[in-house]
Every structure is written in structure tokens, then in C-alpha cells.
Amino acid sequence: MSDIIHLLPDSIANQIAAGEVIQRPASVVKELVENAVDAGAGHIQVNIKDAGRTLVQVIDDGKGMSETDARMAFERHATSKISSADDLFSLHTMGFRGEALASIVAVSQVELRTRLKGTELGSHLVFSGSNLESIEPDACNEGSIFSVKNLFFNVPARRKFLKSNETEFRNIINEFERIALVNPQVALSLYHNDTEIFNLPESGLRQRIINVYGKTLNQKLLSVDAQSSLVTVSGFVGRPDSAKKRGALQYFFVNGRFMKHPYFHKAVMQAYEQLIPQGEQPNYFIYFTLDPSTIDVNIHPTKTEIKFENEQPIWQILMAATREALAKSSAIPTIDFDVEGAIDIPVYNPVKETASYKAPRVQVDAGYNPFESSSYKKPEFDWSKLYQDFEEDRSAVSQDPALTDALLPDLSEPVADVGEAAAADSSTGLFNDVSNPCYQYKGKYIVTSLKSGLALIDQHRAHVRILFDQYITNIRQQKGASQQMLFPEVVEFTTAEAAVLPSLLDDMHFIGFELTHLGNNSYAINGMPAGIENLDTVALVRDMVSRAIETGCEVHEEICESLALSLAKAAAIRPGKVLSAEEMDNLIATLFSCPDSNLTPDGKTIISLLTDDELERRFK
Description:
It is built from 19 helices and 22 strands. The chain folds into 3 domains: 10-200, 2-Layer Sandwich (Heat Shock Protein 90), CATH 3.30.565; 214-328, Ribosomal Protein S5, domain 2 (2-Layer Sandwich), CATH 3.30.230; 416-620, MutL, C-terminal domain, regulatory subdomain (Ribosomal Protein S8, Chain: A, domain 1), CATH 3.30.1370. By secondary structure, it is α+β, with helices and mostly antiparallel strands. It has an 8-stranded mixed sheet with strand order 5-4-3-6-2-1-7-8. A 5-stranded mixed sheet has the order 9-10-13-11-12. One of its GO terms (molecular function) is ATP-dependent DNA damage sensor activity. Keywords: DNA damage, DNA repair, Endonuclease, Hydrolase, Nuclease.
């Protein structure tokens, strides 16, 4: 029997490695920009075409490479960062494994122009799928220019599974923002299809955060600073009143590297306990600085998951530092004794005689007797006169036919009953009779009887289902009632939100929103759906966009459902609202006319049924 085990060719091995390191165009941006930071660049420019499918170009003014280093950089596991296993635990740079460039060149066409500082000529290298096609001298600027073209051109299956341009570009923005937030000393710019998206000058950390996410964030940030022998925690947390249900800006960085850490996230959330409503998330930008030997960044190909040697002590330090920041800014309520209108508390003076202070006395009418008629004084207002005026008005109305027709209903036409409409629905057949009595329990549930038993209906979820079906119908039929706003409101989005918004505008218009682009990621809300006048329109639009981003919708129908669900949840009646009998009847009848009346669009139960058999068993 012949041997069957053999070594893979380098080109195939590199493509396999690329599957772990280079998942999408955003991965290319991350690796190339981090390499530029490691090269000591002061200015980095990123040019993107077609969300990175056609081109990802990174231009830096770093120290550059010699011709030999430029050629070696594309070999697998070629690195200048480590020479022994011990170096893995004393890392101060972003890249170190030497897999990024080898993985990139395995699945794309790469062109590199680089010139080492202090030399007269640079080098120009051209690769196509791990094959070096040419290398020649080049009169380029000091630094490096990496141009990655036609990503996954030789792996059609991988290219096919890339998401839409909006989604891929949003991922590029996310990676760019993470690098920008941790390198404020580097000037960064990003261009997409020759349009400037970011232009971030060198600045301090707080100013860098404001430059990335907008100046409105400036008043919402609280400084965090804690130093110990284990770790230094610095950065900013958001004020409690800036917390939101979705789309919160939450970032952890350790030694200049972005990371995800659910355990530390719980520490921050515990510091905000009882300061923000349940379900809302605060903003935070937390930076850890500690000995590299106490962490391991080599446990995940993308290096976003990091293992800490002293997790529990750092958890305690982080929570205490966050609480201290909230307390110093008076975010935690305190008693203020220096307010106007405070009660003057007399100060004890031993010099004064105690006789000068008299006990308070109550004046009592000793001669008052409630049982004596002379003690009772009749009110001056004559209530009988009020009744007399009412009778006169009533007779005047009865004598005027015009007023009678205006005030009384026309009894010649039958009045349609809501319960009757629901009973007539042959698809349900749930009601026992025409008029089912309804009872509201604790302003949250509606109790009514059905043929199969006793039904408990969540009024908020029922209304969500009704409104969702209405909004979906409006989107599909491309019609929706819009109410023009007397004073348009302006909403500012982050760059990531603004990138996805154009794909949502048409569907939002069909719901009833009318938005106009003002430039600089700002939009004016000129119209809103009828019936939601009492809602915060700016917060609602933000919530809809954030939900669409979180769900990562790709299919048009899924985007429509995400928008409709956001608006339905915001516009539905809230738990605790008292409903009249007519409102409850109308809600139930409309609910049972929906195609699916048992579950909300996101799968939550609307109706809980207590059958007759269950009731009988309870009373045995």
C-alpha cells in the first residue's frame, strides 16, 4: 500500500490560513493599518473601493522596508517581532505572528511600494495569489503603500459569501474606529470611492473620541482613572442619562489593543446598577495598561479575545474606578444642604437663657359644639340654583331640533359592536357571544372569556402585533400616512450609522418618516408616521437604525421587518395604561383579525389561555 500523507503546497496552506485571519475586507484594513502603526507612521491614509472588494489601499509615512525585507514580509511566519517563545509574553506591538501579509497575498492581487528611510530608492513588488510576478526599484516616498486588489479573486466561494457593500463597509468603519480610538497620536483618514469619510488629526484621547463620534458626546463623558500595582485603568464612561437600549459605544483596550471581554463588561454594568433603567447600556471607553507577561493575546487568530492572569482583582478595580467616576460627577444622587429654601435649623447657644424659647401652642375654640345648630354655618353657594340652571339648559336643548341632532346619535342606523365584528370572523370563532366582558388587570393584562376558556392578553404585545402588521402592509404597498412636522428636528448619526442609512431611507419613507440629508452625517426629520406625536422622534429614528445595524439585515424583507418592529414597539401602548371597555374590545377584535395573534413578531407570547378543564382542576 502506497503512502497517502503528504505536505500541502505553500499556496494552499496560505489560503487555509487566510480563512482564519482574512475573513472579509475589514480584516485586510485591520492588518495593514496595524502594521503601519507598528512601523511608526504619523499619518495613515486608507482608500477603499466598492467596500474593499475592488481595492484596499493603505498609505503610511512609517520607516518603510528594504527590498529584502519587503520580499520576506510576504512569507508565512516571517516576522521582526519575536525570535523565541518568551517574546510572546513581552509584546508591545500589534502584529507578531507573520501570518497577515502571507494570508492577504494568498487570496488577492497585491502591489507594494516601499522605501526605507534614509535611502534614495525604494522597491515595487507585484504579487498575484502568492506568486511574485515582478520586483524592481521604484522612486516612491518614504514609507509604504499597500494596494490589495480583487480580494478572493481565486477563491470564488469565499467572494460569493461576502455580504452587501453596506455591511462590508460598515465592518471596515468598525475596524478603523477601533484603531483610531487607541492611537490618537496618529493622524488617520479614510476614503470610500473617493469620498472622505474620516479625517482625524493628531489629538488627545478625549478629542479623538469626539472627532470619531461627534461633539455631542463631549458633555456625556466622565473621566476614569485608577492606578494599582496590577493594572492602570483609564478612559471614559458615559453619564447615566446617556445610556440607551441599543447602539451603545462600548470599547475595551489593553496595551493598545482592542478586545472583547464579557466578564469586565459585567463589572461596568454593576457600577451602573440602579442608575440606569434595566435593559439599557452605558457608553464606555476603557483602557487597561499592565505587564504584557500577565496576559495572553495569542489565543485567537484575530487577537480580540485575551486571557488575563489576574481577572478577579482587575474586575474589582474596574468596578470601583467606574463608581468613583460616577460619584465625582454627581451622577450618583447626593443630599445637597446648600439649596435655597432650606429649613433654618437653630444653633444651640449656651449663653442665652432657655426661658427665651417658648413651646408652641395651639389655639382651640373651647366654645365650639358640632351638635348645636348655632355652631353650623350654611354655605353661601346655593346648590339648588345649580340644578335649576341645569334643567333650564336641558329644556332649551330639547326644544331646538338642530342641537338635538348634533348631540344625540342617529338611532335609525344600527351601531356596529366591536365584539360582534370579532364574533363574525369565521377564521377565529373564539368568542362565546356578541358582548364579552373584558377586565383589565394591573393596567397590563386584559382578561376575557373565550369558547375554550379564560384568556389573559398582554395589551402591549397585542398592540405591537397589530401595529407591526400595519407597518409591514404600508411598506409592501409603498404607502404610509406621514404627518409633517411644524419644526423639523435634526438627528446626528455616527459614521457607521450614516453608512447604512441610505439603504433604509426608502422603507422608512413608506412607514411615514421623511428624512433629508444635511451633510456631515446629519439628517432633518421633516415628517413622521401619524399617531406617534407623543414619542421622541429623534430617539425613535436612532433606535430603528441601531436595530437594523445590530441584526445585520441583508435581505430587503428582513430590513423591512426590523424597521416595522422598532416602530411598533415604540408606538404601542405602554404597560400601566388604563383602557376603557371600548378600547379593550377594539384591541381584542383587531388582534384576532391578525394572521398570527398568538405571538409577537419577535416570538413573545401574547395570549395565555386557561382552559375550562384547568379551572375545574383548580377548584377540586
